[in-house]
Amino acid sequence: MALKTLAPAMMKKVLFLASLMLAASAHAQNVVGNAAEGAKLVATCQGCHNMGGGYRSSFPEIFAVPMINGQNAQYIVDALKEYKNGNRRFPTMRAIAASLTDQQMADIAAYYATAKGQPIK
Ligand code: HEC
């Protein structure tokens, strides 16, 4: 009799704990970007990504810099992660991305996704 009444209760507890753990790990992967926080992090990026009409840095003879204003947020996060893990090899971007946390990447992506297509002077 004890078994019959205990088992469902234990099952519920186990399921509840399992759902908590799932929720926690889902949360860790779905970092939500905050554009206002991102705006504080992009000072270094602007010098390269926002000059000379957006597609060139201040050193057009050295870099052709992709326009990232208005770029899809997920694309930006993916690109930064690829620089960080070495799948993309541009050295400067790799060094920069390596210093960013997932949260900072999401914040920066949220900022650039809503940024206007015009270069900032
Ligand atoms: C020294 C100049 C420089 C700085 C500073 C810089 N970038 Fe870049 N970034 C580049 C160049 C050049 C590329 C293209 C590299 C390549 O060919 O892979 C690039 C590529 C990227 C890409 C991929 C764009 C695409 O269309 O595939 C993203 C996203 C990006 N940078 C974000 C950032 C962010 C965010 C910062 C600031 C935290 C930053 N960059 C700082 C020069 C720079």
Q: Can you walk through the features of this model?
A:
This protein is mainly alpha-helical and 121 residues long. The protein folds into 2 domains: 1-30; 32-114, Cytochrome c-like domain (Cytochrome Bc1 Complex, Chain D, domain 2). It is 61% helix and 0% strand. It has helices spanning 2-29, 35-39, 43-49, 73-85, 91-98, 102-114. Helix 4 (73-85) crosses helix 5 and helix 4 packs antiparallel against helix 6 (102-114). The longest helix is centred in the N-terminal third of the chain and has 28 residues, at 2-29. It is elongated. 18% of the residues are buried. The mean pLDDT is 78. The structure holds heme C. Residues 33-116 form the Cytochrome c domain. This is Cytochrome c. GO terms for molecular function: electron transfer activity; heme binding; metal ion binding. Residues 1-28 form the signal peptide. InterPro entries: Cyt_c-like_dom (IPR009056), Cyt_c-like_dom_sf (IPR036909), Cytochrome_c_Oxidase_Subunit (IPR050597).
